[in-house]
From TrEMBL:
InterPro entries: Cytidylate_kin, Cytidylate_kinase_dom, P-loop_NTPase. The keyword Cytoplasm applies. One of its GO terms (biological process) is nucleobase-containing small molecule interconversion. Keywords: ATP-binding, Cytoplasm, Kinase, Nucleotide-binding, Transferase. This is Cytidylate kinase. It is found in: Cytoplasm.
Length: 238
């Protein structure tokens, strides 16, 4: 009995304190790649909140909801059951038990997700889900999105806001899809930024206490190192 208690307290002494990391920024700044790598390196959970908004959008498109009608979106918002797996080396997302990781990345979903995610009822539901996932992450979590530092987890231990020039972001996104048109990618990305930043309910914004990192001239490895260092400093000070 006393061995168990000693083992537990020894583990508590050596394990770093749980840390909540919020990473926000527009599309193509490196949020997902950075967050996954940082979480994997530090043994933290990982949550891609954009994937959840994509998942609810995909469900609406599949279930005959008119995504041009905010009232219809609001009425349907609570129907799909969205489950996120938080292992940074193998993140998953299911909708009503079905793997949605592939279909949520289609052009159709990408072009409609800003409209669906602007509806307050959608945000309230998804924000609640995100907070409960973060609260359940025993060793801490890296949560990435648009409003994590400002709205979802305003008490996060560390907040990072990633930026990059539209040219760099479009080139990165274009590089992911064979034969894609760079100018069209840039135009679509700027349009989505404007919609996400301009909406009334928790728009894409940098929290006042976030550290801004411009990734335009940085390699992914440099961004990861920078964030790991910032998180390590916070953990040491806890
Ligand atoms: N600093 C960087 N330099 C070059 N390419 C990058 C950098 N950060 C991310 N990328 C690449 O850009 C693409 C978009 O990155 P991603 O992490 O999905 O961005 P976000 O989640 O912000 O939309 C990916 O192909 C990724 O490998
Ligand atoms: N916390 C969040 C995360 C994403 N969203 C919305 C707005 C974004 O355009 C979409 C898709 O986000 P996602 O991070 O998947 O987008 P990119 O991978 O950067 O292209 O979801 C949001 O409103 N709030």
């Amino acid at each position: 009995m006393s061995t168990t208690v000693e083992t537990v307290s020894a583990a508590a002494r050596t394990a770093p304190p749980a840390v909540i990391v919020a990473i926000d920024g527009p599309s193509g700044t490196g949020k997902s790649s950075t967050s996954k790598a940082v979480a994997a390196q530090l043994g933290l959970s990982y949550l891609d909140t954009g994937a959840q908004y994509r998942a609810i959008t995909w469900w609406m498109l599949n279930n005959g909801v008119d995504v041009g009608d905010p009232a219809e979106i609001a009425t349907a918002a609570a129907k799909p059951v969205i489950v996120s797996g938080t292992d940074p080396t193998a993140p998953t997302i299911t909708v009503d038990g079905e793997d949605a990781s592939g279909p949520i990345r289609t052009q159709e979903v990408t072009s409609k997700v800003s409209a669906v995610s602007a509806v307050p009822e959608v945000r309230t539901l998804i924000t609640g889900l995100q907070r409960s996932i973060a609260a359940g992450a025993e060793r801490g979590i890296v949560v990435e999105g648009r409003d994590i530092g400002t709205t979802v987890l305003p008490d996060a231990d560390i907040k990072i806001f990633l930026t990059a020039s539209p040219e760099a972001r479009a080139a990165r996104r274009s590089g992911e899809v064979k034969g894609s048109d760079l100018a069209a990618t840039k135009e679509a990305l700027i349009k989505r930024d404007a919609a996400d930043s301009g909406r009334k309910t928790s728009p894409l914004a940098k929290a006042a206490d976030a550290v801004e990192v411009d990734t335009t001239e940085l390699t992914l490895a440099q961004v990861i190192e920078c964030v790991v260092t910032l998180v390590g400093e916070k953990q040491a000070a806890k």
